[in-house]
Structures
1.
Amino acid sequence: MRILAALLAAALAAAPATPARGEPSGALTRAPELLEFIPAEYPPEAEAAGIEGAVVLSIVIGEDGEVRQAVVVDPGPHPGFGPAALHAVQQFRFSPAEIDGVPAPVEITYRYEFVLRRPEPAPAPPPEAPVVIEGRVVERGTRSPVAGATVECQGIAVETGHDGRFALRGIAPGEVIVRVLSPEHAPLASTERIEEGRRREVEYRLTRRHYDPYEAVVRGERTSRDATVHTLTTEEVRTIPGTQGDALKVIQALPGVARSPFGIGLLVVRGSEPAETLVYVDGVPVPQLFHFGGITSVVNADVVEAIDFFPGNFGARFGRALGGTVELRTREPRREWHGAAQLDVFDGRVEVEGPVGKGSAYAALRRSWIDAVLAVALPRIDREAANDLRVAPRYYDFQAKLTLPALGGEASVFAYGSDDRLEYVDEEDRPGRPTFRLSTSFWRAGASHRRPLGASSAAHTVTVAVGRDGFDVVRGGAFGLLTDVLSLSLRDALSVRLGPSLTLEAGVDASARRLEYSVYAPPFGAPGSVGGDERQENPATVGERERGWWFAPGAYVEADWRAAPRLRLVAGLRADVESRFGRAKAWVDPRLSALFEAGPRTTVVAAAGLFGSPPDPQETSPTFGNPDLDPERGLHLSLGVQRRLPWGAQLEVTGFYKALWSLVVPTRAVGDDGELLRYSNEGRGKTLGAELLLRRELARGLYGWIAWTFSRSLRQDDPTDPAYPQWRLFPLDQTHVLALVLSYRLPGDWIVGTRVRAVTGTPYTPAEGAVLDANTGRTQCLAAPARYSRRLPGFFQADARVDKRFVFESWMLSVYVDVQNATNHENAELRFLGYDCTAERAVASIPVLPALGLRAEW
Amino acid sequence: MVIAMRPPLAPPEPPPRAAPCRPGAGAPLALAAALLALAACDADLDPQYRVTDLRLLAVRAEVEGSTRADAFPGDTLALEALVANPLGRAPLTVTWYGCPPRADELVLPCVDPEFLRDPQRLARAATADAGAPAPRVIALGAGEALSLRIPALGEPGPASVEAALGFVVRRALERATYRCLLYAELPVVAVAEAGGRRQLALKLLRVTPSEADLAALGASELAGAYLPNVNPEARHVLHAPLGTGGCAGGAVLESGPFPASPTLLCGVPASGSSQAYDQCGPDGPEPTVEDLDWQWYLTAGELPEFDGIGNATGGSVELFPPAQPFTLWAILRDGRGGETWSRFELAAP
């Protein structure tokens, strides 16, 4: 038996990489490819004992493709494997990775497998020998071609090409055995009858060793110049319990993010309001994250390649937010024809993709079926409610993308959108007006182009998108809001490498909107007052209709400078202008971060920066807000340590402080005309906290993290408020947020996982007394002077999930059971008070909630 | 970009009070709302409709010699508090305080939680301000019923509303959308105390300029822009055995013997009780009609549709009467601050 050490895969983990030395930054535009492979020597003891296994290494690849550094992360099952693999890997040569189109160093995780193999393929016969067996090797289930597989017969061996095709020459007639070996697949042996002078056409289907999402794909890790960024690939998060595979929901289990009540889709990042964390899809901001506030995200996770989450101190290319930033990067379409269909408890979805001309494209559509279920079930449960439900809750979303080479670079054309609707009519209400109607929709369509400039020292990326947003909400005669926004957004970035240690990026991040809205509502009373029109059943309302332009141009420049061999400085400057209906405000945000390599595995990161955010649109309404509001401002400070640990683990500890000022808060102040100003910029805030993330990359089937956040977030209201200058807790402040996420891959394409969360209860203001609002007949509880002085009980929830994938010849079926609150722990989400505001009762969160999902892929 | 109106952020509201559990009334507006409603329906809290101790159930304002709830300057308002005292606590006192509008203070003491948490502060403020030219709090008197005269324009007095009316008129002239708000609010607090128990009620009286006042203010063009509110009138309450298809053949409810079996109660407003008036929308005035609603209270018995918490409301309710005598109140509200009520002393035959 001959034994070979075989390079089987470069399985690159998806954890956020420690920034490699000296690299520029930005998005990975080209992954490194292995050009020269050096086989490792199989340790004789392991060989004799018949031991196979894999070694996981962390490799830093230089901008010239050379291996700069290699570290064994997981030494595998035999002590000889690690040194042997390390020695071999250090001699590898790759094609350079490109970031923003520019060759750049990257850090990857490499999986080197030691497999005992039978006969070494004999040298290929002379080419003049006739082809006897030819065909293709594809993967069972996915029908993807298997490149680099060895096809051997009678001692003659060939390798398959990129399309999986092969041709065996010089095979003697008769019954022969063909063996097919591929590093990532189970070996295959097939008996063929060869007839003299006849060519035999075959197709071999190999079974992949593991069909779970952690496929062995060469994938470079995005390097970052941001102080803190957590990157999640969709493949990683798809099987995390309690999320139904929704990538955006997984963010809520990362450090720095507070828990949302009832699991709705609020991103409360480092003590900031949810609206202060913006979400981008391929650089284009989207107005809505989740269908109906939290059922599932509006972008189908199947088209998302990865998510970058910046909890604070993000780079100058992002702005207009005081909290964090989330960027979804959609994946590239595949060149082969594929499709998928999925059903789960809320919706169904279909996807198709394949080659289009010189490029490739995909399209995906998802629609909820809650309305269909209600149409059948509700009449049996409550006929009156069924009659009243004019439009049952329903949502859909779509995504499409075409990628192709163009203009010396790569171009993409994309479109995506979302539509939610719900309408309810109470028979007792007046006819013609819905008791409640909610309609939320948006779409974006655009194009992006990326190309290198000059001799690979610069790159240019531009994204232009148009879109339309609609948001309508009507609550009988008391409140109505109809909006229609046409938008044009532009993101243009030019990255130039000015020297071996300096990279400069400048860009434009701008949008123009044509906004039209109409609204009617009771006028806001002075904050803190009891009673008022807004509580009446038939309130007096005032209305407003506006139509106009809203410009938000922004520009930035950012320098990434290797100031010393172990010190990297990133300095940015961003300027924003906000012009609404002729009123313009401007602000400038300088930002600086420093990354110091304190050791071979340790990086210390410090960052400081100013951040600005325009007021919400409703806050600048002439009738319901204050048009003269200024932008809100914030200072982010952070200091952290990142250290790579053995066994594919990484530890990050970050302390942060955030100071906020010019916050928009309600005011009792009046203007010169005697009118209530409603809002002022007199609010202040501060958040102090620490985050810990211990994360293990996928190795030996285990993947997951522990995230712990400690924070204390405070607010100070307007000086006209009776409580001023009291500092109170931020309404969603949570002192401790602990999340454990674990996922384990078992043989047979099983994945089991759990998510456990333990969180401090959110604060609330107790009631102290009550008064009958004699205009409505309702009792109104009086807030105690000490605001947010009590907390709900702590929250605990354990979720569990099991995934199983069945692989057939040309398609696959995945089944999962996702159980939320598996222990049926009762958590108090909020409290109800009795009519006299003395007795209270907690409202529990979801009980045990199992969900079943099916997904077919071909 | 999504635009959403949001109420003032501060000060924080205390935790919400639960919605009623009546089928269909707790609308499934969203999944979370449905969860909340379900959670509230099994609340082991005392139902709001059952009056077991001293309660202030309503306060009605009506211009003397008229059915108007909104007053013109110079009108005299009759204020009446509906006080339920099933335990007969004594002595029962009802004290009234009023807070004239002030240009320098938007949150008047009568609507300020700081004062309402401790009504003695209202009393102290009224005492301190007695005789002041611009008092913050005025002690209006005591008793379940009270008369309150609104000063006419130009009439000097501590409770002058002239400046406030001048402001709303000026605002309505400048922006048409404020024509639907052509009134000044005069908050009045009733404090009922008996046997160591205290209850508060807040009534926001509306004072609107008459046509003559508008002429005097140079704003005749605003005449008719705001329709003064009129208290609704109840025709009667019907009762019929439950399960007989409604109240169509029911009997008019009167104090006295009452069936011991489950009963359907139906409130019937007098015709013309529902006023047509204008709300101001984005495109100007929009005609609308008052949506009348009934609230039900009783000292014993069950309204099973409202076993959770929240007001027992609706034009018809199911009543499971008790074996012992009980009191039933039916309050008709027009949703704009106008109301009327009926009281029935009932007992099984």
Note: The radius of gyration of chain A is 30 Å.
2.
Amino acid sequence: MTRASFLSRQAVAGALLGLGLCVAGPVWGQSLFSTGGLGLVADPQDARGSALGGIGLGLPGPEISWSNPAGAVGLPAAGLRVSFQLDGYDATFAGRGSTGSTARFPLILGAFPFGSRWAVTAGFAGMLDQNWRFEQLDTLVVGTDSVQVLDRVSSEGGVSRFRVGAGYRPLSTLSIGLGAELFTGGVRRISGRIFPGQAAPACCSASWAYSGVGALGSVDWTPSEAVSVALAASAGGSLDAEVDTARSGDDAVDASYDLPVMVNAAASGRIAPNVLLTLGGDWAGWSSLNDALEEQGGARDSWSVQGGVEVELFQILGQPLPVRLGARTERLPFRWAGDANEWADERALTGGTGLGFSGGAARVDLSVERGTRGSESAGLEESYWRFLFSATVLGR
Amino acid sequence: MIRGAARGAVVLLATAALAACDNEIPTANGSDLFPGGEVPTTLLVEVTGTDLILREEVYEGFGDPRRAPFLIVANDFDGAFDAHTLARFADIPDSVTYTSGTSRREEISAYQGGRVLTQVDSLATFPRSTATLYLWELTQPWDSATVTWENASEQPGQETAWTTPGGSFGTLLDQAFWFPGDTAQKDTVTWELDSLAVIRLRSPDHPGVIVTSDQPGVRVKLSALTFEGDAHPSGRPDTVVAVRTSEGPQTFVYTPDTPQSAAVLRAGGLTGDRSLLTLDLEQEVEACPAGGGPCSLVPLSEVTLNRAQLVFEPVQVPDGYRPLATPRVVLRSVAEPELGRFAPLGAVLATDTISPSAFAAGTDREFEMDLTTAVLQFLAEQARAEREGEEVETELSFALLADFEVPDLGLLWFQRSPTLRLVYTLPLNPSLP
């Protein structure tokens, strides 16, 4: 590799990082379920894993994985992965409807191998989406005038996390990883009434800044060339919300929430030279927040099961063009609009493809997801489309 | 190839980044979804009388009818108002400049005749139908600085009454018609003069002319009168050159005098009336949550003020003095109200037009002036002063004035003690789960 091409890769990686960081901080609104509990739990996905049902680790070979820092051991070069997501939802509740769309960068992740036994990963991703808005149009009689007003309660912001990890390969088939993460972000809540000529309520608002720390560990095991297994777990102490006094009323108070333990496990197996099967599961102990979120309907442990298949059916320019299909079922941790409603689940069918370049030095993946959340008994039913694009660049 | 692929990825994601600029916040409609069921509560309170008004004073004399930028002719307008226009052409030219090969200036040997012209302001004329206007010669001299309907002069020690109130006139010079909407005349009224009339008007001692109307109920607003003469230069007696002049005093006399009432707030009119008010903005308002619970009184600064209106009640003005053109009511801040009529005027706090019919018979409507911005700025300044330990101002003073886009002699009268109507929303306290 020449110095020019190395510098070119650095520039490309820097450009991707810069683009992603521009919008990666806040977790933009994806669903009305963001109103429940602490918000909608966001998955830091890349398009390949998303196309396989939402699997985040356990794929064969070295991988740049958010959940699994051990997976980066053995990468041939430093790499950068950026994902871009387009969402559109259609919701119905109590005879009313709502639609929306968003575009966001759910994941930016870099991996830096050091020899064949060590690797470091660092990345930034969203965790909790707290973007939502409730409105009600009304008419007031003021003197001899009828004045149309709009009542609004809104929340804008969310929780993101910056994660660093390190992986080490003590054995040729086993890698272990450890990491730490910082929780960050903020939220601004507004409650008020908008009169004609106003763009927003003149009162009242409060802002909080989030902070917290957590730790994670992972194990990546390749018992054979055809099978890969990975297990990851993370735990955070507490998520602290500190009032921004300059932007809040006197009655706003700090808050603190226990962060759950999260466990991810997955396995993949090549059943034929061009066929890969994947199976994974996640669990998070959100029930630790049940008492704290009692007024919002409490919280329960969430889990998810994902499965998929990847088949290399075609080739373009000498590179395989895989077809990926997957499915996922998931139990969401928070209720919509209080304990009068049942808990909500999510189900999705996924698909996608990808194309590598120059022996895997660069890759673009795309996925499409069609899913539903909630039910009539849950008070809110949503269907959504999600499109995910990922670009991975290795510096060689 | 790797470079091209990587660049392609960059382009793809850059395009996507631009698309990421527009995100929608998931929105649901329904107050039943509001956290805790808390819905904003908006209340209305009206404050008037001694709870609000600290000062109410009326002053006149900011205008001089003799300096009005218009002339009036009226005959029994609204059954009460009469006005005649007086003019004296002091400097009808005796020489003329014309071009005949070269520019020449010569004495005028004679006037063949001439005319007097004026423009009718149709927007301030009633009714807007054909009007007959008469131009007469005055027979009695008058003092332009002190002339009134009753007296040709009110100079101290030289008071002289008109032999006929409203102006003593003799020879009818001409009558003319105003046809509203006439595309040829275009609101111009012309009285023709013969050569003898011009000779008389040129005399230095001539008292001038007077314009009247005999149509009952008419009030016509005129621009300045212009004399136009058809002059023969002495060197070219067969040539006619038009000369024009408006030089000389022009005014109008009227009856009755501008009415004044101590019972109302006044603005406008020929005497330029204005009213001065001071409001006490150290108000407490009720805070009664819609969902029940005890009510309390809280300072105005602790609620969200959505609207502040000063509500006036127009009063029928005396016959003859109702505005014909659309007036604009203006509130201007006054920093030193203790100076009374000498208090300098500050920035405009509020302004709005009002229908002239609000001051006619049968009026029964409110006139609301939006003070929201002014009161919000006032409360913000109060908060700043409190924070910085400065003296907190609690009073808002302003002058009530009339402004006409089309000058008019109309009066604006309002009941004393206007009402301050406040619309405010009780604060909610956003919180986290």
Note: Helices of chain A lie at 3-24, 47-51.
